[in-house]
Amino acid sequence: MLMVLAVVGLRGAAPPKIRPRVSFVASFDLGQWIGGCRVLCRGGGVLHVVVAGCGSTGHRGTLEYPGRTVTLEPAEVAHLRIDDVLNCQMGGLAAEKHIQYILTVEKRKDDFVSVVMEHLRMSGAYWGLTTLDLLEKLDTVDVDEVVSWVMQCQHESGGFGGNIGHDPHILYTLSAVQVLALFDKLNVLDIDKVTNYVTGLQNEDGSFSGDIWGEVDTRFSYIAICCLSILRRLNKINVEKAVSYIVSCKNLDGGFGCTPGGESHAGQIFCCVAALSLTGSLHHIDKDLLGWWLCERQVKSGGLNGRPEKLPDVCYSWWVLSSLIMIDRVHWITKEKLVKYILDCQDTENGGISDRPDDAVDVYHTYFGIAGLSLLEYPGLKAIDPAYALPVDVKHVIGGLSCLFSSSSSVRSSKSFCSEELKSEELKELSLSSSYGYSSPSKFSGSFLKKDLSPVSVFQGPVSCCTGGSSSVVVGSARGLEVCGDELNVEELTFNIEVEEGNAEPYVKELLLGAQLRHKIFCEDFVVKAFYEAEKAHRGQMRASGDPYMQHCVEMAVMLALIGANSTVVAAGLLHDNLDDTFMNYDYVFGAFGAGVADLVEGVRV
């Protein structure tokens, strides 16, 4: 591949011995970055390039644009690969500047910005700290100081206020839980107390109020579901009614409003889509219709707006993009242009990101800009979960179950092989978070985007598999699932649930009934089948406590269900020890449940 060096203008008493070989006319835009230098005025220029390696060792070259000159050592002279021109045009992320900006904002206590944001400081802490975590600099803050301040914001009701002494609100309660989760400090909470506060805000129709004053909004539905899911207490609310209320807010254009009949808005859409994702209810969404509405939010500049005929705003890089990812329609927008728009909104001198280029920066837009770039898989950033809005490595996003999928061996079955299949290494990497991938090849391929991210959501998202080049979507249902392009209905599998139920010991029926009372997913035929197969395999095996070993399998599966796992993952949880401790092998599980379950079970082998 041709490598070139950009060298513009040679100056000084002793010109460097790097000589241009060819030149061409290039037109530059104001603020554009090329080869590490920013264009400071409009107009055309002549860009001279030399073949890499032609410079003499020990001599320096200069790279000039109007109003600016940069001196470069031979090894530093701007290397431009032909297939990386896009990256150079977009410039780069001023990560260190943004880190310093966040840390500086935290230290300011008495300026105007601090004062006007005092009432929502808890959310500001979440934005700033999550930004640092995505930039892998969370260790620059004093954990004990942050945790102490967060706990001082808790009200006797169990909820949290935006600052010390402020009234509690469900919004700040989620922010507090998210901040504590970032530091793996949820143990400082009285979880039941926080849970009681959140559950007490659910109304008879399934909606949620933000606080005791009663404002209802689908934002609060998402916040309640997300908060309780992180705390592993989602079963404490009426999920069915919560979902029903959210669905009642769906509009004819496919979007969602803040209340039934409310105008579709990208922020509300994120809240509704994420809540439905976390509760395993994405089937209520017309993904094509909603995807079309969302992709229409991209404007000429590459940015996204929240409603038709509105200006773009960096924050919608999160609200729109995460929604598109959760419904698997992210390939309907031009991701390159969105990356460029976000980068253009940076203050590269002082740090921070604004809503639009050249506007004032703030912590809110800095967070959502960085989070959007993370969703776009920009280099140097941690991956972020599109539903929880937390880095995927946050332990409590997975309910503390990372040990279940901790195998370091990579599994790639020939029966389920495809470029996007779920691998045990990816499970380890993603720690069982809600992982969503892109269903079409990225236009950034070969450039800066990360490779081999799993498209599989282990939490009720679509599960993509393929065979022979065709792909399909798996969604947990009571009567069937698509596996690797071939539909497997429970009735067609070599298994008779009625016979198994009739032959089961009383304690087995009690185990299943107990699980069904705790989560409705255990009423699905597919999961019931996995239960009886696991029981048959472990029959006669006992734990050290004297309890049947099957009890452990059920406990594991119930925990997965309570944190939002779909039927594929719950079935794998029931069967997770079978390949090591029973007569079952991979082919047996594959034949009975398909590659989705078989690969998960294989992936957790020690």
From TrEMBL:
GO molecular function, one term: metal ion binding
EC number: 2.5.1.60
Ranges where the Prenyltransferase alpha-alpha toroid domain occurs: 93-389
One GO CC term on file: Rab-protein geranylgeranyltransferase complex
Catalytic reaction equation(s): geranylgeranyl diphosphate + L-cysteinyl-[protein] = S-geranylgeranyl-L-cysteinyl-[protein] + diphosphate
Pfam families found in the cross-reference section: HD_4, Prenyltrans
Cofactor field: Zn(2+)
GO annotation (BP), single: root development
Domain of life: Eukaryota
InterPro entries the UniProt entry points to: PGGT1B-like, Prenyltrans, Ptb1, Terpenoid_cyclase/PrenylTrfase
Spans traversing the lipid bilayer: none
Keyword list, A-Z: Metal-binding, Prenyltransferase, Repeat, Transferase, Zinc
Gene3D superfamilies: 1.50.10.20, Hypothetical protein af1432
Family label: Belongs to the protein prenyltransferase subunit beta family.
Function per UniProt: Required for male fertility and root tip growth.
Record text on subunit structure and interactions: Heterotrimer composed of the alpha subunit RGTA, the beta subunit RGTB and REP; within this trimer, RGTA and RGTB form the catalytic component, while REP mediates peptide substrate binding.
Name recorded for this polypeptide: protein geranylgeranyltransferase type II
Organism: Lithocarpus litseifolius
Phylogenetic classification of the source organism: Eukaryota, Viridiplantae, Streptophyta, Embryophyta, Tracheophyta
